[in-house]
Amino acid sequence: MSLDLRDRPPVTSSAAPAPSSEVPPVVVEALRAGDREPVLQVFAGLSDHSRNQRFHTGTHRLTGSMLAQLTGLRTGHHEAFVAQVGGRAVGIARWVREREGGDVAELACEVVDAHHGHGVGRRLVAAAAVSAARRGVARLRCQVLIGGPAHLALRGHGIRTGEQVGGVLEVLVPARLLASIADAAGDLAGSSGDEA
């Protein structure tokens, strides 16, 4: 499968339709450095369970230092993408190089609970993986919930190894492969294991 690594404009698609109303399109675009509002909106839309899966703690609020770290973006080192529906942030995916100039980056994704199961996480992961590959990242370190949609999608593409801690599997996936999988799969989630 070929992967287009050229700059992409914001992507628009429709989420699964609601029973009696039309759902606004999902728009995925780069998050701007220092832009706190989308991060706060997404965090507010996560249940305690989702927050625990994503941040590995039961945190109920983002501290100033956490918010600074999540919004301290730097081209080629820490990039993030936000999914919006009707102008409101519903998900964020990011990659951060493990060391300056290194070819491995950590990938993380969170989607507000109300938008699980609509492909938002999959689209965010695809955008982040393409961005990372374009910037020279060869492998992405992901933490996925064992048996969750991300784990199943990776297993379907032969990714079976990794370190298991509790119900979470940590894997290193080639960035270009992950971009291809996320672009083609129906429900690939990010590190939180949420139902994208």
CATH class term: Alpha Beta
Task: Tell me the name of the CATH homologous superfamily.
Answer: Gcn5-related N-acetyltransferase (GNAT)
Choose one word for the global shape.
globular
Biggest β-sheet, characterized?
Answer: 8 strands, mixed
Number of strands: 8
Radius of gyration: 15 Å
Give the helix proportion (percent range): 25-40%
List the secondary-structure elements in sequence, H or E. EEHHHEEEHEHEEH
Strand content: 25-35%
Q: Would you give the CATH topology?
A: Aminopeptidase
How many domain regions? 1
| Class per helix and strand makeup | alpha+beta
Uncertain stretches: 1-20, 186-196
Give, in spatial order, the strands making up the sheet with the most strands: 1-2-3-4-5-6-8-7
What is the CA–CA distance across the termini?
Answer: 22 Å
Q: Architecture, according to CATH? A: 3-Layer(aba) Sandwich
What is the count of DSSP helices, taking H or I runs of 4+ residues?
6
Task: Give the overall average pLDDT.
Answer: 80
